[in-house]
Amino acid sequence: MAMPGDDAGSRAEPLLTAARGWLRDALELARVRLALLGVEASEHALALGTSLALLLAAAVLLSAALVSLLVLVTVLLWESQRVLALALACGTLLGAGAAAAWAGLRRLRAVSWFEASRAELARDVERLRGGPRA
């Protein structure tokens, strides 16, 4: 003779198995996406570190060259136009600093951070909504 609780238990078991499978798939998907995010983060960090090192070297060398040039111009014009020479030196340094700051900010805004991860997550959302499968 069948017990009333046995019928409910037998119906719940496939549902529980399906829920476990769905949860396992979701966790695996999250693990893969986090791994992709980690790879992208390390690539971005390496590229950023290399760029910063090169930019720092360029800034130091160009600054030394610019200061040397400004000292040369100031020494050449010291007897006749010393105020003009110093004003040109200050203006040149201010202009170069402003141009470097503008270029650096523009470059930072142009970087598309974690583009592959965002694209994968967008495809995941589309698949979950029942969209086309890729």
From TrEMBL:
<feature type="transmembrane region" description="Helical">
    <location>
        <begin position="84"/>
        <end position="105"/>
    </location>
</feature>
<keyword id="KW-0472">Membrane</keyword>
<protein>
    <submittedName>
        <fullName>Putative Actinobacterial Holin-X, holin superfamily III</fullName>
    </submittedName>
</protein>
<feature type="transmembrane region" description="Helical">
    <location>
        <begin position="52"/>
        <end position="78"/>
    </location>
</feature>
<dbReference type="InterPro" id="IPR009937">
    <property type="entry name" value="Phage_holin_3_6"/>
</dbReference>
<keyword id="KW-1133">Transmembrane helix</keyword>
<keyword id="KW-0812">Transmembrane</keyword>
<dbReference type="Pfam" id="PF07332">
    <property type="entry name" value="Phage_holin_3_6"/>
</dbReference>
